[in-house]
Amino acid sequence: MAKISSLTTLFLITICYISVTTSAFAPRDYYDALQKSILFFEGQRSGLLPRSQRLNWRGDSGLSDGASYHVDLVGGYYDAGDNVKFGLPMAFTTTMLAWSVIEFGSSMHDQVSNAKAAVRWGADYLLKAAATPGTLYVQVGEPNLDHQCWERPEDMDTPRNVYKVSTQNPGSDVAAETAAALAAASIVFKDSDPSYSSKLLHTAIQVFDFADKHRGSYSDSLNSVVCPFYCSYSGYQDELLWGAAWIHKASGDSSYLSYIQSNGHILGAEEDDFSFSWDDKKAGTKVLLAKDFLQDRVADFQVYKAHADNFICSFIPGANDYQAQYTPGGLLFKQSDSNLQYVTTTSFLLLAYAKYLGKNGDITSCGSSIITSKKLISVARQQVDYILGDNPAKMSYMVGFGNKYPQRIHHRGSSLPSVHTHPSRIGCNDGFQYLNSGSPNPNVLVGAIIGGPDSGDKFSDDRNNYRQSEPATYINAPFVGAAAFFSAYNERS
């Protein structure tokens, strides 16, 4: 990964913060980005598509998933540009979609029903995956073979192997994340569909109990098929804390507070972590638990406010704990593979924390610097604006947004002719002519946020450049909340 000297970075980003005082976008632009960021999920759907499907170049797919194993695993989301259903990123995606609705649903205008439909599509699948007690189905598709083909999901003929974790082969990370997703989704539907909400929460509690009693990483149980794709590099401790926090939020059951208080120190609660992703939930958990301290003054959770402050301060130039790296154009940069996933998750946490601080008249102290909620909103806004086109390349990294956006994204369904325009089958190897073509993708995957530019703000619009050009559900999910926030944000408020 290319490095920028810390002094140069600090100088450039400080200048950037000083000079950029107003956003390049109006509320209507953020609303456009919001509705497109939700629409993207329809392009990732697996299963029998509903009549309400709006991205109509897609067709039904994976209709026999699980059948040979005598389990119904039809539905859910393809995680990115391939045709595998990976449980860990799908569950995280569902959690973040739900959190977006929980925190910012009131700012979603007429898009809240579409956002809730996106949550439900993920939650319905996770309910199926968790239907058998003591077992959780965590993957459909053999990724090594899937990646040897370039074919539409409607045509796929690679093995649809099913993989699970169980009491004998545990997977506390994927199970606890699934519990978090179901619990968060239960909050989304608590008022509009109480029976569904109750089912989600009941299943979340069962899955969490399984995750906690039978501890172990799914990377150990299923190494050859989940690694290196979605290895649980951070271990399972962070997911156990995250899952408990979400079940407490959904249920109000004080036993989960006791669990957090008793187990926090051995589950990584005392470690500061400066990224938030499908793999590592520590920062997200601390922000979520900090809300309990800020709102209810639960004394035992003051430590989470301190850790959340450390996380926030790491992104503020000039703060004592500042350690983030930014590109010369002002984009948060974590790594060369799919960097925008960290940008969208960080932006979401900054805005959620700004909301918690603002509601309770609180502030964040970064050494001698006092950071207000408006400052956090300003930092997040710069990141959101960069994604939408306020960057050196003047390119939107959301497909279909603005006048200039990537045309050759690394995505099978988008890059191959639609089943509606080309009904005959395109075989495994026949699809590579489209992968290697220089032509724009024939199907626009509206709303997809891709991996994004490198540490020097450079981007290659090349279908083979998957590190930069592949979209993913877990990039978009937190952006839904951020776009909703700015679509209703009044700078004078």
From TrEMBL:
Family according to the record: Belongs to the glycosyl hydrolase 9 (cellulase E) family.
Reactions catalysed, as given in the entry: Endohydrolysis of (1->4)-beta-D-glucosidic linkages in cellulose, lichenin and cereal beta-D-glucans
Protein name: Endoglucanase
Chaperone in keyword set: no
Signal peptide from the UniProt entry: 1-24
Alphabetized InterPro entries for the sequence: 6-hairpin_glycosidase_sf, 6hp_glycosidase-like_sf, Glyco_hydro_9, Glyco_hydro_9_Asp/Glu_AS, Glyco_hydro_9_His_AS
GO MF terms held by the record: cellulase activity
Protein's gene: LOC110732313
Glycoside hydrolase family domain span: 30-482
GO biological process terms, semicolon-separated: cellulose catabolic process
Keywords for the protein's UniProt record, in alphabetical order: Carbohydrate metabolism, Cellulose degradation, Glycosidase, Hydrolase, Polysaccharide degradation, Signal
Active site: 410, 461, 470
Pfam short name (any one): Glyco_hydro_9
SUPFAM superfamilies: Six-hairpin glycosidases (SSF48208)
Keyword Membrane: no
EC number: 3.2.1.4
